[in-house]
Amino acid sequence: MLAVGGGPAAGKAVMAVVGTVAMGLVAAPGPAVAASTASPILRHEVDVTLNVAENRLDAVDRIRVAAPASGEPVRFLLNRELDVRAVRTGGRDLDFQAHDRWFPRHFWRRPPFADLGEFEAAREIEVPEPPVGWSAGVLTVEVEYGGVIADSLHSPERAYGRSFETTTGRIVERGAYLTGSTFWVPWSGDGLFPFEMTVSVPEEWRSVSQGRAASDAVERGRRVTRWVSAHPTDQIFLIAGPYDLHERPHGDVTVQAYVYPITGEDIVAPYLESTGAVLDRYSERFGAYPYAKFALVENYWQTGFGMPSFTFLGDRVIRLPFIVDTSYPHEILHNWWGNGVYLRRGEGNWCEGLTTHGADYAAKEREDPNAARDYRRSTLQSYRDFALAGGKDFPLRGFRERDSAATQAVGYGKTLMVFHMLQRRLGADMFDASLERFFREQRFRRAGWDELRAAFEAESGEDLVPFFAQWVDRAGAPAWRLEDVKLGREGGGPYQVHGVLVQDAPAYDVTLPLLVTNEDGAHLRHEVRCTGERTPFRVDVRFTPDRVSADPDFETFRRLHPEESPAALSAVLGAPAVRIVIGNEVSGTMRSTLLEIAEEWGRDSAVVVVEEPAGHGELPDFAGGTWFFGEGHAAHEREALLGAVHLHGSGTVVAAAREAAPGGTELRPLGFFLPDDPESAPSVARKIHHYSKYSWLVFDGDRNTDKSFWEPGLSPLTVKVR
Known about the structure:
36 strands; Neutral Protease, domain 2; 4 domains; seven-stranded mixed sheet; alpha+beta; Immunoglobulin-like; globular; eight-stranded mixed sheet; 12 helices
């Protein structure tokens, strides 16, 4: 994920979810934005020294703020582990009070209470007005402080759905990580600011921040670097560690990699070589790259953050062979969407889906039409399995960040499809021109869905209020049916395919593609605008048609019928209730390992763990998804559902299937986790969620060696006409 407008005032660092095709990026860690009452900081000038052996920092920050009204204090937040030693203005020491807590209404008229967990590291510092009063205009307030920053790496709260660790900030022997959520520099509300920062680290270390390194030298056994960020930003990142620096010029941009000494040129070179081409591609589409550098920065724990002008990727992540062509371009594009135009929190996170559309999905389009079609189908499948299942859907304007498969399916997937539909409506050139206008007008500002709509309207001349209202402000998606389909012909004229496209109320306004085909390969594409619950259509065809299909290439955002997609792991992973059955043929170390994995997944209250009793008894009915962990009678009874995958030879098999519920009116999702090695089983279990779109997987140890899909069924949106 990228660091999209991340910061105490804006959002979270973009966190990548490492998957088989791409990692999902998110905004850099930092609190959310709302209307502010405190005077926002206008500029920071920071001098900071990192004492790695003591896990501490010592800093002086000269902040510029608008002078408060007479009698009002200057207030800001700072990490509760940092002790303020002095506050000064105009060379005079000022009194101050460090509170044990902080008071949201000092910083917002209407505090975003749902987001205040992001402020757990902060406390409030209050500086009363001095006896001589505040100087008029803008104040320069110098704050001197220091302390230990060594938060632990925290495991994800939901191991079932996520697998990366988080921290509010840390300075340790392996590296330093300080972001907006660390509150390591003063913060006083929703503001964007430029900054200069001088960083002193051990001689063998290097520091990284947004902007450019104006100077870098070794002085008295310390490396001192001055970072200048002239463009407004919403938080200050400081990453440091024992890095080697690789760099090369690309036009006006310096392409860099900060990596550990063990990371060789064979790892670094592909990233440096690809960066220039990716920057050129996006600059041509959306406007010039807005920063002086782009850097790959290696991390010792597994992350996928995108910050302004750099990305912070785990050491194992950068060694995955597909990352350089998938997630890495996504990180770069966030420098336009999220780190070039910032989010206006409270109005929806549009940047994740727009970045996914412009990077991940665009890569599939360049690959071939079938790859793009499969990507769209998988997107609709994830929405159905993760968001619709269990009633977890919500409007796009309510999306903040990805914290579950459901929020990813909506915030990334639905948003991607909305931009895809808009691109089809306006045409590719007009779509890109509108985004270029949006970037030109909103660069280094906060923007929301309304500014996006205005840019598309200004460029295209169309009224897009209804389009954005139904897709951004309304939850859900249409479910289509084909009814009354018949074939006619008048005399020797063309054949006529008649039918009715049906959707439930309240109806969406959608232009739905139709495809008429015959067995000889002849085809005709037609589009029908549907504005009501029932839309009759007639297609004149000059060949003998065999069938008609509605939206066969998944061009519109809609509810996918089960038959349109193969059984996939997403269905059982996303089921509103999940049962894990430990097979009765599993024993010893394997059994204890599977129980531990099941119990870990069972931290989610919707997961029930049961041990299959001995013998051949039937499992009780369960209204949800069922996982079979290890061999057992119940799993063997359903082996036919696995087809040939179970016969692929040695290895761990993970597979999805469907089974009719009693009465046959519902298909329930099944998952099979059949490991052949207890040592690798936990690692494989952690990876399953990242392969959720697939029907089956095979692993050798914890390395995936094969994956694919079952064949989908016959779509109810395809009807034979003769």
